[in-house]
Amino acid sequence: GEDVEQSLFLSVREGDSSVINCTYTDSSSTYLYWYKQEPGAGLQLLTYIFSNMDMKQDQRLTVLLNKKDKHLSLRIADTQTGDSAIYFCAESYGNTGKLIFGQGTTLQVKP
Amino acid sequence: EAQVTQNPRYLITVTGKKLTVTCSQNMNHEYMSWYRQDPGLGLRQIYYSMNVEVTDKGDVPEGYKVSRKEKRNFPLILESPSPNQTSLYFCATRTGDSYEQYFGPGTRLTVT
Protein backbone atom coordinates (compact mmCIF):
# COMPACT_ATOMS: atom_id res chain seq x y z
CA GLY A 1 0.00 0.00 0.00
CA GLU A 2 0.93 3.64 -0.03
CA ASP A 3 3.60 4.75 2.43
CA VAL A 4 5.63 7.87 3.18
CA GLU A 5 8.81 7.73 5.24
CA GLN A 6 10.80 10.48 6.94
CA SER A 7 13.63 10.62 9.41
CA LEU A 8 12.34 11.67 12.83
CA PHE A 9 14.81 14.30 13.95
CA LEU A 10 17.21 16.91 12.56
CA SER A 11 19.32 19.40 14.49
CA VAL A 12 21.08 22.35 12.84
CA ARG A 13 22.73 25.60 13.90
CA GLU A 14 21.08 28.91 13.19
CA GLY A 15 22.19 30.24 9.80
CA ASP A 16 22.96 26.79 8.37
CA SER A 17 20.88 25.08 5.72
CA SER A 18 18.49 22.31 6.72
CA VAL A 19 17.60 19.42 4.44
CA ILE A 20 14.65 17.23 5.33
CA ASN A 21 14.21 14.06 3.29
CA CYS A 22 11.20 11.97 2.45
CA THR A 23 10.52 8.85 0.41
CA TYR A 24 7.14 7.75 -0.91
CA THR A 25 5.76 4.71 -2.66
CA ASP A 26 2.80 5.80 -4.77
CA SER A 27 4.17 6.71 -8.20
CA SER A 28 0.78 8.03 -9.30
CA SER A 29 0.78 10.90 -6.78
CA THR A 30 -0.21 14.17 -8.43
CA TYR A 31 1.08 16.53 -5.79
CA LEU A 32 3.62 16.26 -3.01
CA TYR A 33 3.49 18.61 -0.06
CA TRP A 34 5.45 19.95 2.83
CA TYR A 35 3.53 21.02 5.92
CA LYS A 36 4.87 22.73 9.03
CA GLN A 37 3.47 22.24 12.51
CA GLU A 38 4.60 24.52 15.30
CA PRO A 39 4.11 23.44 18.92
CA GLY A 40 0.43 23.40 19.86
CA ALA A 41 -0.63 24.60 16.42
CA GLY A 42 -2.33 23.17 13.37
CA LEU A 43 -0.79 22.35 10.01
CA GLN A 44 0.48 25.09 7.75
CA LEU A 45 1.06 24.33 4.08
CA LEU A 46 4.61 25.44 3.35
CA THR A 47 4.94 24.47 -0.26
CA TYR A 48 3.97 21.81 -2.76
CA ILE A 49 5.32 20.43 -5.99
CA PHE A 50 3.48 18.98 -8.94
CA SER A 51 4.67 15.52 -9.86
CA ASN A 52 5.97 16.55 -13.31
CA MET A 53 8.38 19.08 -11.79
CA ASP A 54 11.92 18.44 -10.57
CA MET A 55 12.42 21.50 -8.44
CA LYS A 56 10.52 24.38 -6.94
CA GLN A 57 11.98 27.37 -5.15
CA ASP A 58 10.03 29.70 -2.90
CA GLN A 59 12.14 32.25 -1.04
CA ARG A 60 14.21 30.28 1.49
CA LEU A 61 12.57 26.98 0.58
CA THR A 62 13.73 24.64 -2.18
CA VAL A 63 11.88 21.43 -2.97
CA LEU A 64 13.61 18.74 -4.99
CA LEU A 65 11.73 15.80 -6.47
CA ASN A 66 13.39 12.68 -7.84
CA LYS A 67 10.54 10.68 -9.34
CA LYS A 68 12.72 7.77 -10.33
CA ASP A 69 13.84 7.20 -6.73
CA LYS A 70 10.53 8.49 -5.26
CA HIS A 71 12.49 10.90 -3.12
CA LEU A 72 11.41 14.36 -2.02
CA SER A 73 13.49 16.85 -0.07
CA LEU A 74 12.94 20.24 1.51
CA ARG A 75 15.87 22.57 1.90
CA ILE A 76 15.56 25.58 4.18
CA ALA A 77 18.29 28.14 3.59
CA ASP A 78 19.60 30.31 6.43
CA THR A 79 17.62 28.37 9.04
CA GLN A 80 16.27 30.49 11.90
CA THR A 81 15.10 29.57 15.39
CA GLY A 82 11.56 30.31 14.20
CA ASP A 83 11.89 27.40 11.79
CA SER A 84 11.93 24.97 14.72
CA ALA A 85 8.88 22.79 14.20
CA ILE A 86 7.72 19.42 12.93
CA TYR A 87 7.78 19.11 9.14
CA PHE A 88 5.49 16.65 7.40
CA CYS A 89 5.89 15.33 3.91
CA ALA A 90 2.62 14.23 2.28
CA GLU A 91 1.50 12.83 -1.02
CA SER A 92 -1.91 13.04 -2.62
CA TYR A 93 -3.49 9.68 -3.21
CA GLY A 94 -6.15 8.82 -5.77
CA ASN A 95 -8.95 11.19 -6.65
CA THR A 96 -10.45 11.33 -3.17
CA GLY A 97 -8.09 14.06 -2.03
CA LYS A 98 -6.63 11.87 0.68
CA LEU A 99 -3.19 12.87 1.86
CA ILE A 100 -0.73 10.23 2.98
CA PHE A 101 1.57 11.74 5.60
CA GLY A 102 5.01 10.79 6.76
CA GLN A 103 5.75 10.49 10.47
CA GLY A 104 7.08 14.04 10.65
CA THR A 105 10.63 15.34 11.12
CA THR A 106 11.30 17.44 14.19
CA LEU A 107 13.69 20.26 13.24
CA GLN A 108 15.66 21.71 16.14
CA VAL A 109 17.51 24.95 15.43
CA LYS A 110 20.23 25.83 17.90
CA PRO A 111 21.25 29.47 18.33
CA GLU B 1 -11.44 35.38 6.26
CA ALA B 2 -11.17 31.76 5.10
CA GLN B 3 -11.54 29.57 8.16
CA VAL B 4 -11.85 26.02 9.36
CA THR B 5 -13.01 25.89 12.95
CA GLN B 6 -13.12 22.96 15.32
CA ASN B 7 -14.82 22.63 18.68
CA PRO B 8 -13.88 21.84 21.29
CA ARG B 9 -10.15 22.47 21.08
CA TYR B 10 -9.46 20.36 24.15
CA LEU B 11 -11.54 17.61 25.70
CA ILE B 12 -10.97 15.13 28.50
CA THR B 13 -13.65 12.48 28.78
CA VAL B 14 -14.25 8.98 30.13
CA THR B 15 -14.56 5.68 28.34
CA GLY B 16 -17.97 5.10 26.80
CA LYS B 17 -19.34 8.62 27.01
CA LYS B 18 -20.52 9.68 23.56
CA LEU B 19 -18.98 12.83 22.17
CA THR B 20 -19.01 14.94 19.02
CA VAL B 21 -16.23 17.09 17.64
CA THR B 22 -17.53 19.71 15.26
CA CYS B 23 -15.84 21.06 12.14
CA SER B 24 -17.12 24.04 10.22
CA GLN B 25 -15.77 25.86 7.14
CA ASN B 26 -16.80 29.11 5.48
CA MET B 27 -15.19 28.53 2.09
CA ASN B 28 -17.98 26.54 0.43
CA HIS B 29 -15.59 23.63 -0.08
CA GLU B 30 -17.03 20.36 -1.30
CA TYR B 31 -14.40 18.10 0.20
CA MET B 32 -13.92 17.64 3.94
CA SER B 33 -12.03 15.05 5.94
CA TRP B 34 -10.90 14.05 9.40
CA TYR B 35 -7.41 12.98 10.40
CA ARG B 36 -5.90 11.84 13.64
CA GLN B 37 -2.30 12.55 14.58
CA ASP B 38 -0.34 10.21 16.82
CA PRO B 39 3.36 10.46 17.73
CA GLY B 40 5.58 8.62 15.29
CA LEU B 41 2.66 7.86 12.95
CA GLY B 42 2.01 11.20 11.30
CA LEU B 43 -1.58 11.91 10.30
CA ARG B 44 -3.98 9.20 9.23
CA GLN B 45 -7.31 9.76 7.54
CA ILE B 46 -10.40 8.65 9.47
CA TYR B 47 -13.30 9.60 7.17
CA TYR B 48 -13.85 11.91 4.25
CA SER B 49 -16.75 13.49 2.41
CA MET B 50 -16.80 14.50 -1.25
CA ASN B 51 -20.00 16.52 -0.84
CA VAL B 52 -23.28 16.73 1.09
CA GLU B 53 -24.60 13.28 2.02
CA VAL B 54 -21.51 11.60 0.49
CA THR B 55 -19.11 10.11 3.04
CA ASP B 56 -16.61 7.27 2.98
CA LYS B 57 -14.09 5.53 5.20
CA GLY B 58 -10.46 6.50 5.34
CA ASP B 59 -7.66 4.38 6.72
CA VAL B 60 -8.67 4.23 10.39
CA PRO B 61 -12.50 4.52 10.60
CA GLU B 62 -13.16 2.02 13.42
CA GLY B 63 -14.90 3.60 16.38
CA TYR B 64 -15.89 6.76 14.53
CA LYS B 65 -18.93 8.04 12.65
CA VAL B 66 -19.46 11.13 10.54
CA SER B 67 -22.31 12.94 8.87
CA ARG B 68 -22.52 15.60 6.16
CA LYS B 69 -25.99 17.08 6.21
CA GLU B 70 -24.85 20.52 5.10
CA LYS B 71 -21.87 21.66 3.12
CA ARG B 72 -20.22 23.72 5.83
CA ASN B 73 -20.28 21.16 8.67
CA PHE B 74 -18.66 17.76 9.07
CA PRO B 75 -18.93 16.49 12.67
CA LEU B 76 -16.91 13.55 13.98
CA ILE B 77 -18.84 11.32 16.36
CA LEU B 78 -17.37 8.89 18.86
CA GLU B 79 -20.29 6.78 20.05
CA SER B 80 -18.32 4.95 22.75
CA PRO B 81 -14.86 6.46 23.11
CA SER B 82 -11.98 4.27 24.28
CA PRO B 83 -8.50 5.20 25.52
CA ASN B 84 -6.93 4.23 22.17
CA GLN B 85 -8.83 7.15 20.64
CA THR B 86 -6.80 9.58 22.70
CA SER B 87 -5.22 11.66 19.95
CA LEU B 88 -4.99 15.01 18.20
CA TYR B 89 -7.72 15.38 15.59
CA PHE B 90 -7.67 17.60 12.54
CA CYS B 91 -10.41 18.55 10.13
CA ALA B 92 -9.38 19.49 6.57
CA THR B 93 -11.20 20.97 3.60
CA ARG B 94 -10.54 21.74 -0.05
CA THR B 95 -12.40 22.60 -3.21
CA GLY B 96 -13.02 19.80 -5.69
CA ASP B 97 -10.23 20.75 -8.06
CA SER B 98 -7.69 22.36 -5.75
CA TYR B 99 -4.32 21.03 -4.66
CA GLU B 100 -4.45 22.80 -1.31
CA GLN B 101 -6.12 21.48 1.81
CA TYR B 102 -6.92 23.82 4.67
CA PHE B 103 -6.54 22.36 8.13
CA GLY B 104 -8.39 23.32 11.27
CA PRO B 105 -6.52 24.16 14.49
CA GLY B 106 -6.90 20.67 15.94
CA THR B 107 -8.79 19.07 18.83
CA ARG B 108 -6.81 17.34 21.54
CA LEU B 109 -8.90 14.49 22.96
CA THR B 110 -8.02 12.46 26.03
CA VAL B 111 -10.12 9.42 26.92
CA THR B 112 -9.52 8.00 30.39
What's the quick description here?
With 111 residues, chain A is mainly beta.
What key phrases describe this protein's structure?
A: 111 residues; six-stranded mixed sheet; five-stranded antiparallel sheet; 11 strands; globular; B: mainly beta; seven-stranded mixed sheet
Instruction: Give the termini distance of chain B in whole angstroms.
Output: 37 Å
Class computed from helices, strands and strand pairing of chain B = mainly beta
What is the N-to-C succession of helices and strands of chain A? EEEEEEEEEEE
Q: Could you give a short account of the major beta sheet of chain B? A: 7 strands, mixed
Oligomeric assembly = heterodimer
Number of helices of chain B: 0
According to DSSP, the number of beta strands of chain B is 11
Any idea what the radius of gyration of chain A is?
13 Å
| Number of helical segments with 4 or more residues of chain A | 0
Order of helices and strands of chain B: EEEEEEEEEEE
Characterize the structure shown:
The complex is a heterodimer of chains A (111) and B (112). Chain A is an all-beta fold and 111 residues long. Chain A is built from no helices and eleven strands. In chain A, 0% of the residues lie in helices and 59% in strands. In chain A, strands 2, 4, 5, 9, 10 and 11 form a six-stranded mixed beta sheet that branches. A five-stranded antiparallel beta sheet of chain A has the order 1-3-8-7-6, with no helix packed on it. The mean pLDDT of chain A is 91. Chain B is 0% helix and 51% strand. By secondary structure, chain B is an all-beta fold. Chain B contains no helices and eleven strands. In chain B, a hairpin with a 2-residue loop joins strand 5 and strand 6 (54-57). Classes of the chains: A mainly beta (111), B mainly beta (112). The interface between A and B is medium-sized, with 23 and 23 residues.
